TrEMBL record:
Superkingdom, taxonomy of origin: Eukaryota
Protein name, as recorded: Tetratricopeptide repeat protein
InterPro entries recorded: TPR-like_helical_dom_sf (IPR011990)
Pfam families noted in UniProt: TPR_12
Amino acid sequence: TEDYTRSLSYFDKVLKIQKKILSPNHSLLAITNYNIAKALAGLCEYKKSIEYASQAVNIARHTFGSNHENVQLYENYVKKLRRRTLINVVPNGAVYE
């Protein structure tokens, strides 16, 4: 978890800089949001992770269009995170699919 925490700190700094110098829908913002989502998921902070991954989807969709491979990658990651969130709230650890 220490590596995820350190990574998250760096990605947060990068995102702040990028927001100052890049256009709001620049592809690098999508990548950084996705990386933050991955770090948050590594810390089991799935709800926050979904927020950042969803932001990556929105930016990539605006920049590349809905059929771009990055959009699909980010969308699939959001779905994966939502499944994890559902699994974590099911009582007794039962998994339903």
